[in-house]
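We modelled the chain as a single entity of 425 amino acids. Its sequence is:
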Amino acid sequence: MLYNSYMLLTYQFKLNPTSEQVVILETWGELLRRHWNYALGERLDWLRRTRSLLDRCSLVSEPIGGIPDKPDYYTQASDLQQTKDLFPDYKNIYADCQQQNLMRLDKAWKRWLIPDKKGNRGGKPRFKKRGDISSFTFPRVNSPKAGAHLTGNILKLSKIGEIEVILHRPIPNGSEIKQATILSKSDGWYVSFSLEDKTVPELLPIDEIKTATGIDVGLEKFLTTAHGQSIEVPQYSRKTQSKLARQQRKLARKIHGSKNYQKQASRVARIHLHVARQRKEFHYQVAHWLVKSYDLIVFENLNIRGLARTRLAKSILDVAWGAFLQIMQAVAVRRGKHTRGVDPRGTSINCSGCGQRVEKTLAVRVHNCSCGLVIDRDWNSAINLLNYGSVGLPIPGCGGLGVSQPVKQQVSYVNLRCSRYTACS
């Protein structure tokens, strides 16, 4: 196996801090939240004082006074010493963590004001309420000047102490830990190690691609391949909504801010966390199965954000196509396989056998063409995706089913019984 590149992997482990360390971690999060809000307020104040509509003066609605210097990461980072002098509690926070907090704000600010190559911009940075900032980053690990050192299953953090790490899986040999992020979830504290993995294989040469498929994602079936294999929608959120609604009704009857309210809110948050973990594990299982089975996977570039504004938003967000496609592409790179996104327009209408347009509504789940091809709608779309994605590649497209087969073709469901840590069979 040849290796010519590297990629960043994230391994997350649960921490077992003492009660005193939990207090320190929570205090750090609160102080960093206040500093975020202050730094964001400086930037917004500068923006209000320096912008004005073309046909009016900003003095009508803005305070009179000198225009402050433009704040950026460097000016705000240089003010950290002054912050520590005015508020001694910030001296107890590792300096790199405070700088990383300002870097996050700077990235969010630039995403909002500066569009990317496609002209898209991020949302406006928001002030954080209590508990919103529940993570902080140590940018260096196991280096001489690092604030975090991992020895065995003990993580030593500067100004916090040694914390036991529950290593439920080993860290790959040869990988270098670049940074450590401490984060809080509803069921405890975790650490996310960013690993530089240098064992990424070269992409499989195009002329060596032997197996390829197209995948059509949907709500009736999670996905259907061009070979007629289909996976059911797990509907984790739907199956949990009755239990979640019961716990939310209990939360509504609690006095806001009381200890009982906080306990019940934690129960609700743990339900959401469990559903998210179920969904993520399912995505990894499907991704590993696809990447192991095929050298090239063609998928459709969907406007998921637009689809999530329709009446099917709850079901679309439950299946989380966007998260799955990201995971699948990352798994493919890790194994040296190819993925390709194509325009989905016309894939469910055009016949995969003869290319003729067969208009149909979403309620029609069978593709029935005058050429004699009767096939599942999603299967037909997956074959078209494979044909579109294999254009220009020296591999044979699927070509559709033979038009001499007028019998309705049924998809076969695949049962996934594997873990993302082991290869799917």
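As a brief sanity check on the tokenised model: The chain has two domains: 3-201, 206-413. The radius of gyration is 26 Å.
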